[in-house]
Design brief:
Length: 202
Amino acid sequence: MRSCFACPWLKQQFTLVLGLKKFLPSEPEQLLRRLLACGPCSRGTVAVVGSSGESWASSNRTRASMQGNRSRDTRPELALRRAVHRLGLRYRVAVRPLPEVRRTADLVFTRVRVAVFLDGCFWHGCPEHHTASKSNSAYWSEKVARNKARDQDTNRRLQEAGWVVLRIWEHEDPHTASRRVETVVLEQRRRLRPVPQLMIRR
């Protein structure tokens, strides 16, 4: 279900509903109708676009394709994880390197402060494989531009906090990419390893 809101109150309620979806007996659409009927936005100040109304996508095919996209555990991600795991490296999956910043890395090496992002060629504007969408091109070009700006901001925030950021394109060979990850992680281990203090005889 996709939605656009003119009312901050309903946006907050909708976010809460989606967060509790698996614990609730009703569908989000039914709960939203109740919220619309009793909330401060019941006078028609909000437009909700759902499965039974207008779609945000330019066509049914586009909508079906977008709904099928996964936010994590994609095929390139799984291939990279397996390759990195074979090298003996252990990591956390899909966590925020900085808990206070809403940016999620695909692989996180907490102790050595290495954050690995696996970027999709379309979504993040790969210079080799990104192709502009023919339908609704203005929307998608702005979307990709925002994603790229967000990526740069994420890199800056993490680097300022002492993290090493490694970005890998989804088209890269997972075995080659895993070696890059290994090199960075091992270098960080050496750099952060405490220097043993020499015993000074008095």
